[in-house]
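Ticket closed. Logging final result for Phospholipid-transporting ATPase.
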Amino acid sequence: MTSSQPLLLSSSRNPDPSPVEPPPPPLSTDSLSCFCPTNSPSSLFDDAQKNLSDAKDNDIVSVGDADSYQKHHDRTDSVLTSERFQSAESQFFQEFQFECPRKERRHLVSWGTMELQENSMSLEISGTSLVQDRVSKSQQVHRRSVQFEDHLSSEENPRLIYVNDPKKTNDKYDFTGNEIRTSKYTVVTFLPKNIFIQFHRVAYLYFLAIAALNQLPPLAVFGRTVSLFPLLFVLCVTAFKDGYEDWRRYRSDQNENNREALVLQSSQFKLKIWKKIQVGEVVKVSANETIPSDMVLLATSDPSGIAYIQTINLDGESNLKTRYARQETASTVFEGHTISGLIKCEQPNRNIYEFSANMEFNGQRFSLNQSNIILRGCQLKNTEWVIGVVVFAGQDTKAMLNSTASPSKKSRLESYMNRETLWLSVFLFIMCAVVALGMGLWLERYRVQLDTLPYYRKRYFTNGHDNGRTYKYHGIAMETFFSFLSSVIVFQIMIPISLYITMELVRLGQSYFMIEDKHMYDSSSDSKFQCRSLNINEDLGQIRYVFSDKTGTLTENKMEFRRASIYGKNYGSSSNITDDTMPEASISAGAAGRRWKLKSEIITDTELVKLLHLDLDGDERVAAHEFFLTLAACNTVIPILQQSSSSAISDLHEKVESVDYQGESPDEQALVAAASAYGYTLIERTSGHIVIDVNGEKLRLDVLGLHEFDSVRKRMSVVIRFPNNAVKVLVKGADTSMFSILAKQIDEVDHGANIKNATQSHLIEYSSQGLRTLVIATRDLTASEFEEWQHSYEEASTSLTERSTKLRQTAALIECNLNLLGATGIEDKLQDGVPETIESLRQAGIKVWVLTGDKQETAISIGLSCKLLTPVMQQIVINGNSEDECRRLLADAKSKSGVKSANCRNNDLNHKKGAENDNLEISDATRTSSVSQWHAGKVVGIISAPLALVIDGNSLVYILERDLEPELFDLAIACKVVLCCRVAPLQKAGIVDLIKSRTDDMTLAIGDGANDVSMIQMADVGVGICGQEGRQAVMASDFAMGQFRFLKRLLLVHGHWNYLRVGYLVLYNFYRNAVFVLMLFWYILYTAFSTTSALTDLSSVLYSILYTSIPTIIVGILDKDLSHKTLLQYPKLYEAGHRQESYNMYLFWITMLDTLWQSLVLFYMPVFIYKESTVDMWSMGSLWTITVVVLVNIHLAMDIQRWVLITHIATWGSIVITYICMVILDSIPILPNYRAIYHLVNSPTYWLTFILTIIIALLPRFIFKVIHQFYWPSDIQIAREAEILRNGQRGQNQIVSVLLSGKRTSILHGSP
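Final structure:
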């Protein structure tokens, strides 16, 4: 085949287009200068081409789309604002102008960045659209009216950069330097700033007030220094941790700022450290070096101006991306001329996928976009050197503007803990009031005896100089008030300050073991589990709803070309496919004695291969040629060639060149690889042309313009000039956006109508198989059409304001009246373990909702294959095109399914406490039909349960209004599964908020792409997948992992353990401090409300910090009620978190009652035994100190489920440490308790009192636990008994038969 063959020129279906006049050999016309092979605009190859397939989630939002990206990052916290809920009518007029001119138009609606259509496919059941009457069927849009003016002059505050003149640039404008700073503190600001941040915790302010009160002489219950110790300890520990982390950031900043780069100085490139680089300076970067700042490319080592960069440090993507230097600047640099010019660009912003600027250079003025800028942090690859001018430096670079952390989230259990802390504050106030009132009454009773009563006389009676001096007595009222404040100081640890630092340490330890869990390591991506937030570990054990993305999350996002529909004929069926190594697939190697070897094998269709190599000029042959030509040309993929020699299939030796394709979109890579397998190999790409090896002959095509994919158009197009100067536009996109812009058939009998119907039928077939679909079309451009488009394209591409909008309008000029070529089907396989994970989550009482941008049929097919949907489920499909229609469809669905609403909705807030089926508000009378799918609006019989709701983005536009949200909520919570198709990113966040705002259930969102960021940040727990779409989701998440299947272990194992541990940790800390405070309270009541203490100040302080804290931390990190095998085998055990078995109000009050009993025994047992003795109060204090420490540690030991060596050391070692400290303190002569313990330990009474006190105090708790576990065992206790017996090598059948009653059998058998 040669380039002169007719099929290379135009489609035979449009045989007589007005050809574009061939330009003169040296193309000098200014209007066409930017479209020639050497001077084509670098904007033609913007590298933000992601997610072109209509089956991909990002069909709804492209990472290259500025609008949608800004909504992700700048409006995360306002997803429920009024902009989110735009009316269909206003959006129609806003989006209408982007459609191609034609007589009959679709009705367009926009929600965020989501395009909706009035027309739906035959499978999409919807009622009569009420919007049709509002749309005029005769509207005309004149192409000439789509003109733009350059808004640069109207830009309020453009950023002006004088190239190679940093002095003029920075003198006129106050630009930041290139020094970066990620650390929070300096040496001067660390102490005040860190203390200020720490005191944002209200509890710290409480303890500061306590310490301040203790400094007042009338209130000095403890030593003034000792009273500061607990608060200072916590502040110092936190400050040390913050300081160390900030020092690491500072060290990293210094290393970064002191790196060196070549900067143009005095006409020579000299080394300069990064932090001294200024805006406007010209910088040279060599291969494999890191870019020091955001720079506009001026020249590269490649004469065509191409540079390859790797952005893994910026967005995590390892694929190489292309950037281009303008030929106007590249040629000047190569010729050695002085570099000067002016760049007018936008102000610094966070959008790493868009850049708008104009450049004035050597009398020329041209546009710049994201393909002309290289960002700080990227690495230069496969390019010897590049030269660029700095436009953004330091903190203004896009990398630094995007370095903000994800929103801080607060644990649900911690909020409950604050509720109980309030109750403890009430108890504290009551105890202090009782002491103060008692003191007042006691003083009033003994008013006249105050001078003579021991320990409370008004005057000193001594022989010294104080003889006769009065005490500081302030009267009964003030003494009562001071007694209240003194009591607050004595009872201060009732609000446990140690709990905060303990929880931080425990969460840190839990995170370490989650990170090091080898079962959550993904070898394919070499990624460990990541804990990016330490505040919500325990929330993982209470998840009720999982909202999942599909592409890249449930699937691998590794695309394989499977099916093709060309000219109405289906290819790729199992009967015709063959491996591409077979001779039939290697015909392309024959002509030139060489063939291209792909990185991965592609399965080809023998019939299609034969068609492509037949010497026919028929329509089918031409369509097949243009089909694969479009696949090879309409993309931004970069070919990388490697030549080698190998044995040919025949006896001859041939040159074998391997080609590897680098691109940001796996869809594009799969399509280009498929074209290569069929003989259309993309082998070269520059800024102005591409070269395709067509069956052994090179075909050079000039690229005149490229309209990248965006979420409004949902298609991509490229304008190509062929060797004979014919100009074509090649288009590919989602079927929903492509069929509306096809050429209208004059005669319905025309074969084109049959092709369209056949293609639609094939698309439905592909979608039902779970394939991702894409429609291919093309058209010839006449000279007038090309001239009009060219003029608009030049103006739109040089505009600094609303450039993307103007480019969309320009694309509408040529993306119309297209000739349909066919469609593609790409397979995105499920990840390993996805069906098993979803089934386990369902058994655990967790509802899995999938929110995807896929077609409805594709999403349902994937849902069935991953066991999200089951054959027995009743599918309710909601496809509405107006608010009234959606209201009717929802009401119809609720009535047919028997779902209760209104009053029941308030009661449904408690549905999480029951089993999963408790959520289904369906009467028994409705369970009679066996219909598998029901479309709202159809007249069918009453449907059966369980229910699965399938709803599209069109409907959500209208439903996510305030008056329809309750209706959707009622229906959704009655379903086991909800599948949302064609949803925009903000719609995903809206669905999460629908559940989060109307229930108390915990939500988890999991995704892998930038379009999942809003959903991840909205949910209570956000999980990012380290997938193929960069790291935006990971950077915005709380946890990150490599595979969806790890979610099973994360929730069922680590989530269960963490919730159990932290729940018990909080209750135990409340108990541990309360029993100590109540013991002091009884002592004060016993000593005439004097607020004195029998315990030394140091003993009171060390109680929470040293004596009892270590066992708490160790148990909080290591304790396990069940093994991971048991938890994975019986997912229903996870429902213990739904029932809040580890932490609830009932347990809190039971714990407080037990605490009250233990404190009474702890105080009065020794008092009763020693009431007739002469033991002093310090000796009694020593006895109480050691007894309470042993008591709380044995209390803890009774609840430990898993004993290991370190647990024994921590628990019993704390008692030993307490004894050692007591001996040391009692050996200091200056302390009042000097040698107190020595007198006690020699007495048998001491040991008898010690043992009896502990036994009597813990006896009720022991009896309660035994009775409760024997007669009312929990699921976890039953499973633990079974696990113990299993470890004792008894059979599983015996375990079940011995341990389980009928109502418990389902627990260990895993039935839902």
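The first strand starts at residue 109 and ends at 111. No further action required.
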